[in-house]
Amino acid sequence: MLNRCRGRKIKLHGFNNLTKSLSFNIYDICYASSEASQVEYLEYIDEEYNSEKLRSILEEVTNIIEAKIVTISTQDYDPRGASVTVLINEGHSPRSGGAVAHLDKSHIAAHTYPENNAANGIATFRVDIDVSTCGMISPLKALDFLIDSFDSDIVLMDYRVRGFTRDITGHKVYIDHDITSIQDYISDQILDKYTTYDINIVSDNTFHSKMLLKSMKIENFLFDSDSAGMSKPEKTRVRALLKKEMREIFECRNLYERVS
């Protein structure tokens, strides 16, 4: 197998033992002022992203990264949330002895976490997605699709290449593809919508990217039957609440400035 990395061609010997792990936190934020609308939002999210919807998303991810599904496990939780785990392989031909080379540590998993803050009306939906592959399969191919599959207001991503494989001369190879940032594999059309921030340790093949939606049209964040009649000062107050919530999640810390 021939790969190109950091300006040179790499011819690998035998099976590619590198493990490539991509982890997502994707957040959707909204405002639901009344208790009834908060419950309605949670029920909407629970239905919109139930285990069957997650299953269809992960099946498409499997197609995009050119893997094959071995097994799928799905679970809807009471009262909220869902999980899906997909075991995948590379679809190798049988090896010596007739055993099929199932890569049983390659998997895709998704878990949802809807929640709300009754004190201020902010409701948050989080989906965690993990794509772990080995061999020639790359989880980076599915980045655009995954971001577009959810109402992604904030995206936190980690990517790491672990282990090593060998080239035909016996030298260890610790990465088999070019990358300086996760953003290298996200389309410009998507990146233009977000403020992005990177922490990368290229020498250790460890990459971290955060994305925060730039434009916030308040109407897209209101989940309330009474929102149409919201006054301008109230919209200003709610906008400040939403921006604070989004900044806190993006920066991974609580902000204590007062929102009037």
How is the secondary structure organized here?
Blueprint (H helix, E strand, L loop, with lengths): L1 E4 L2 E4 L7 E13 L3 H14 L2 H14 L3 E9 L5 E8 L17 E10 L5 E13 L8 H6 L5 E9 L2 E2 L5 E2 L14 H4 L2 E8 L4 E8 L18 H20 L9
Antiparallel strand pairs: 1-2, 3-7, 3-8, 4-5, 5-6, 6-7, 8-12, 9-10, 11-12
Oligomer: single chain
CATH class: Alpha Beta
Mean pLDDT: 84
Strand order of the largest sheet: 4-5-6-7-3-8-12-11
At CATH level 3, the topology is S-adenosylmethionine decarboxylase
Strand content: 25-35%
- The shape, in one word, is elongated
Structural classification: alpha+beta
Largest sheet: 8 strands, antiparallel
Fraction in helix: 10-25%
Question: What is the total tally of β strands?
Answer: 12
Walk me through the structure.
With 260 residues, this protein is an alpha+beta fold. It has a single domain (19-162, 194-251), classed as S-adenosylmethionine decarboxylase, CATH 3.60.90.10. Helices cover 22% and strands 35% of the residues. It has 5 helices and 12 strands. The protein has helices at residues 35-48, 51-64, 143-148, 188-191, 232-251; strands at 2-5, 8-11, 19-31, 68-76, 82-89, 107-116, 122-134, 154-162, 165-166, 172-173, 194-201, 206-213. The strands form 3 sheets. It has an 8-stranded antiparallel β-sheet with strand order 4-5-6-7-3-8-12-11. A two-stranded antiparallel ribbon has the order 1-2. The longest helix is centred in the C-terminal third of the chain and has 20 residues, at 232-251. Mean pLDDT is 84; it is low at 92-104.
